Amino acid sequence: MKFLLCSTLFLIANSPAALFGAEASEDEDLFSLSFEDLLDVHVDIASKTAETLSSVPSTMSVFSRQQIQALGVDNAYEVMNFVAGMQSTRGDWVGAVPKDHARGVYLDSGNVLVMINGERVNESSFGKASVYMPYIPIEVIEKIEFIRGPGSALYGSNAFLGVMNIVTTKDRNALQAVAGNNGRYGATAQFYKHFSDTVSAYATLSYESKSGERYPQDVKDPLKAVYIEAGLDYKKLSLHTRYNETQLDEFLNLAGYSKQNQHTSDNTFIGIKYNWLNTDKFKLDSHYSYSKHAISTAGLIAEFDDMPDFLLGPDWQTSDSKFSTELSYQLDNQWQLAAGVEYAEAKQQKADVRTNYYDSDSQQVILAPAYYQNGIVRIKDFPLFASLKYTFETVSAYGQLKIPFSDSFTFFIGARYDDVKDIDSKLSPRLASIYEINQSHTLKLQYGESFRTPVTNELFSNDSVTKGNPSLQSESVKTTELVWHYQNATLQTNAVLFYNELNDFIETVPFQGSDTLFTFENSLNTDNRGLELDATWQYNKKFALTGTYTHYFHEPINASFKRFASLVTRYNLNDSWQLSLNILWRDQVNAASLNGDEFNQSAYSLLGGTVKWQLNTHSHLMFKAENVLGKNYNVFDPRVENGSVAGTTEELSLHYQINF
Q1: β-strands 141-148, 98-102: how paired?
Q2: Which residues of 5-39 are buried (b: 16+ CB within 10 A; e: fewer)?
Q3: CB-CB contact of 152 with 416 (8 Å)
């Protein structure tokens, strides 16, 4: 790190910052967003209408670029740990892939919808966004919006227990470089050009690499990631595209630790949007998008003394295409209508397998020395996976009315209808009443229903572990929330009581007549309740404090944290130096593992933070630290034999950014 610091300082001393004129944009500091601006920050993903955090008809958390910088995290999924009711940890399926916890539910099937600039990332084979897109660099992000609770009334499947919308930067000219421990280095370049009042373009390129940390299982967790994004706005037409590729080898894959584990994923997206009409009262847009998702992976399944280890994994590709038209209209009586129609097609185009044991004559994986392939090979058109090549066709329509009965009382009513061909149909209603008692106090009573369509892995899998169930129906949840929102000149806080009725949850159950196979059933109907607290207090222009606390009144579905909290402090030492510290606290977890042992992880805290040095109006240097004390801890995953997945220890990095 000393060499790293010296090298960076040399770079700064010889940087071309002095060549930039007075017109160059100033580098934002951590508190360039005033507390008053924070109170009035506009969000629209929860209602399709411009709202503030006090008027929005959902429970929301929003993080600006400056706030995300202060957290010291590197991957967008890590921001979840600072959201009440949400957590992000490692899991058994490619251990570095984030796994979501939301409102007492810890499952691996995509119960949180992840979007980038309003476009879904979740796909149809595994459902989870992070399987195909596990790393989204913080450097490319302008804002992250979270809906805590149901979102299907606007966004359909997967917007089940929450929504995370990542808004990327499109108007910045900057270069960033990073270096850190565990062999980490990377760079990000962002370019923006405003050609005229009707033409502008942007481009972003980010690369990240690290050799990884050494774990007791004699494996590392290396990372290589590329993120590319570009866009063009011409009059009423917008064109946006992005590509990312992530490589996560070794560590944990399919519940096995091995240096031989392999995982690569990539995504390609292109979207075209046309604005037909945009007036003070009426707006009409049409949009087409296409996404391709691919993974190539192989994980350790079994170890042998007399022959090479057995590795296996999917080599799959899926695609999503969507056409939608949306309108918003303000009536003369100030009622606001938001509505839209959508046609979507999700297709699994490839369902191959990667393995190191295979008999080409019988077209089966056979564990015997005669069928060893001298390494991992890809088997095209694997017969047992043929049924996975399935196409989902969904026709959807939604509508919502915002009805301001008075200056102090507003009512929202809306619903979305999704017809998934040959699976089922779902109507997802929502109701919200918002009463502003006075300028400081607001009460909200909210009700919403959401669903998650089963994925091809649950419907049609056919391997040595699971047999799909084509009769599955969608999971559903009914959520009631009571929200108290308070704000004054220095404090903003929310207290949320929620009640979830969970219906037809999909679980793995023993396959009839087999001791080793499992299948999927809509077998779980239950409810859970909880309390979420969050607050931001700005004592003065130099010092701010943000905290969250979550408490579930029931045991989580699958053993996980029943209570957890976060605390972030931000302090401006002077015009050039800013300091932030954060603490993540998680309650103990005690559970039974697959092998019958007890998994016990006592409550623990993780300390992190940042130190930022503003070098001049164009550049800054930042030191980031996660788990700076090197706390060794494990998180529970029910599908790992002993239940234990190792958490990351200290992550230290130095970042340099120059704006031009």
Answers
A1: unpaired
A2: eeebeeebeebebeebeeeeeebbbbbeeebeebb
A3: yes
- β pairing state of 466-467 and 518-538: parallel
Query: Residue 77 in contact with residue 88, Cβ under 8 Å?
Result: yes
* Total number of residues shown for the chain: 660
Quote the CA–CA distance of 34 and 30 in Å, as a whole number.
10
3-state secondary structure of 363: coil
Given this model, what pLDDT does residue 20 score?
Answer: 34
Q: What is the DSSP string of 501-558?
A: EEEEEEEEEEPTT-SS-EEEEEEEEEEEEEEEEEEEEE-SSSEEEEEEEEEESSPPBS
Sign of the torsion formed by the C-alpha atoms of 123, 50, 568 and 160: negative
Question: According to the model, what pLDDT value does residue 15 have?
Answer: 39
* Cβ pair 58, 147 in contact under 8 A: yes
Q: What is the pLDDT of residue 263?
A: 95
Residue 562, helix vs strand vs coil: coil
Distance (Å, whole) CA 253 – CA 503 = 30
**What are the structure tokens assigned to 522, written together?**
């809509």
Q: How far is residue 557 from each of residues 128, 464, 562, 643, measured CA to CA in Å?
A: 17, 26, 10, 15
Q: Which pair of tokens denotes residue 97?
A: 């892939």
Given a cut of 50, the residues of the chain with pLDDT beneath it are 1-27, 29-31, 33
pLDDT at 45: 85
Q: Which pLDDT tens digit goes with each residue over 473-515?
A: 999 999 999 999 999 989 999 999 999 999 999 988 888 766 6
Q: Residue 457 is which amino acid? A: N
Structure tokens belonging to residue 290: 């296409």
Beta carbons of 107 and 638 less than 8 angstroms apart: no
pLDDT attached to residue 8: 37
Query: Of 607, 574, 608, 628, nearest to 30 (Cα)?
Result: 574
pLDDT of residue 455: 94
pLDDT for 176:
97
List b or e across 158-172, with b for residues whose CB sees 16 or more CB atoms inside 10 angstroms.
Answer: bbbbbbbbbbbbbeb
Q: Which helix (H) or strand (E) holds 138?
A: none
CA angle at residue 276 from 274 to 279, to 5 degrees?
Answer: 125
485 — phi, psi (to 5°)? -115, 130
Cα gap 140→204, rounded to integer Å: 7
Helix (H) or strand (E) holding 627, with range, is none
Site of tokens 């994980």: 299
